Amino acid sequence: MWIVAPKFNSWGERVCSVITLNTILQWAHLISVYGNEFSPSSFHYSLSLDVFHSYYVNKYIDHHSHKLAF
To answer: Percentages helix, strand, coil for the chain, rounded to the nearest 5?
Structure first.
């Protein structure tokens, strides 16, 4: 699996842009890169993209993703 992380500008803000739907080739399955500690029981999954700093991209999630990765 690959590890990806968001880009930040010199002010520490995330670099982002709007893309059109027809430019998306395939969806991705992201798995948060966890540390050695457990997440608190009050942690809500909807905060995952804001809390974690990097993610694994699961290229083996389905046949199409595996074909695109290689």
So the answer is: 25, 15, 60
